[in-house]
Amino acid sequence: MTREHRSAIQRTIHTIKIVSVTLAGVAITAMALVMLAETLMRYVFTNPLGWNISAVERIFMPMSVFLALPWLYLTAGHVTAELVYDRLPTAWRTSARIIGHLVLILITAALTYGGMVTAMDSFTLGDAPGWVPE
Questions:
Q1: Cβ contacts of residue 72 below 8 Å, gap of 6+?
Q2: Which residue has the higher pLDDT, 128 or 113?
Q3: Which segments of 44-130 does DSSP mark as H helices, in order?
């Protein structure tokens, strides 16, 4: 791989990291604003929103977690098992790293597939977040 290609890949990865962590921050801010709006509507105007919990738990919380993962991964901000990993022989470290990446890819594929199936089921059934009168 040439130096120019490596530099382009590094810029792309850096851009993905910045965009994803920014979107995670937006999700956290939106979550806080929705909960503030719910508090005001419930206790000041006695007219709760009703859709806020669904939006927070189905949209904003997963966004804040999963969009922060690329940044955590690239900055080594995630929890690591360095105590064990650092004591492994070099060949084992390489194998452990490969296995870890394969497991990460499989889990990501499973989560993506599950999310797509759930989204398609919701779309097919006409499910939408909203307030249902009591």
A1: 78
A2: 113
A3: 52-55, 61-66, 69-74, 82-85, 90-125
> Beta-carbon neighbour count of residue 64 at 10 Å?
19
Residue range 48-72, pLDDT digits in tens: 888 888 888 888 888 888 888 877 7
Name the nearest CA neighbour of 97 among 108, 109, 84, 110. 84
Q: pLDDT tens digits for 5-44?
A: 668 888 888 888 888 889 989 999 999 999 999 899 888 8
Tokens of 103: 């497991």
Taking a C-beta distance cutoff of 8 angstroms, is the pair 60, 30 a contact? yes
Q: How far apart are CA 102 and CA 25, in angstroms?
A: 28
- pTM equals 0.52
User: Contact at 8 Å (CB) between 23 and 60?
Assistant: no
Find tokens 């997963």 and name the residue: 62
